[in-house]
Amino acid sequence: MAAERESAPQELAPHELRTLVAVAEEGGFSAAAVALGLTQSAVSHSVRGSERKLGAVLFTRGRTGAAPTAAGERAVAYARRVLHLLDAMAAEVRGAELGRTAGPLRIAAFRSAALHLLPEPLRRLRERHPDVDARVKVVREVGAGTAGEVLAGRADVGIATIGQTSPVPPGLVGDVLREERYAFVHPAGHPDPRSLPLVDWRENCGSYTRRWWSEQDWIPQATVETEDDGAVLSMVSAGHGMAIMPELSLTGAPLSVEITDLGPDRPFRSIGYVTTPELAGTAPVRALIRELRQLKG
What we know:
single chain, alpha/beta, Arc Repressor Mutant, subunit A, D-Maltodextrin-Binding Protein, domain 2, 11 strands, 23% strand, globular
């Protein structure tokens, strides 16, 4: 029994989790100490204790600061998620006492989803649950994207491109809310819009749509690349090129652009939500998912 007790993993206390998050986010022990109101030696001692308990080196130390190792990235992500669950627990318990749904709710969404998909679900959420503190962070849907924000513990729910072409990442749960078709967008009245240069932006589409593009001999390589879909639409509107864009990005498109259907074999992308299994059971996340699912209708 004594040997079993000695080999059992040691738990990290909330203050140790906060220290790990602070070091990662501030980029060093000294800066983390300032942020936490502690001494640098206290921060160093806490991190060494966490490393000993977890059995892994969590940060590389250098003259310019500290950076999480691969193990440290995983530990910090879990630390953020655990700390947020503790905050959610306190808020939900107080809300339950009053018969209300309450608590913080962090949402990560890519630009067009934040602009055109989220406003109505958030309006209904705030109307029905005013004690839910919902905050939206706009994240580019490239690389880890919005799902990566959830996995890293920086968001509770991500509005992401998932579905047939982009499965839900391991460790997350989610569902598709809508599928949107791509269309050919060009200056209205142009006599030969396919002759125009292609205007694009990096997060436009995934590998499935890119494969479709590669099979279309009339679509050239992008000669103009902008920061986001709003800039693409502005460039096309001004007559500087044509584009292939999804429906959500074309919401409120000006009359100076023409939108042409790409036919029955046109590409599409699926948009849905992702969250972690543990957060899926919290009241604010459940409330948001109920509102998001109305988008399916």
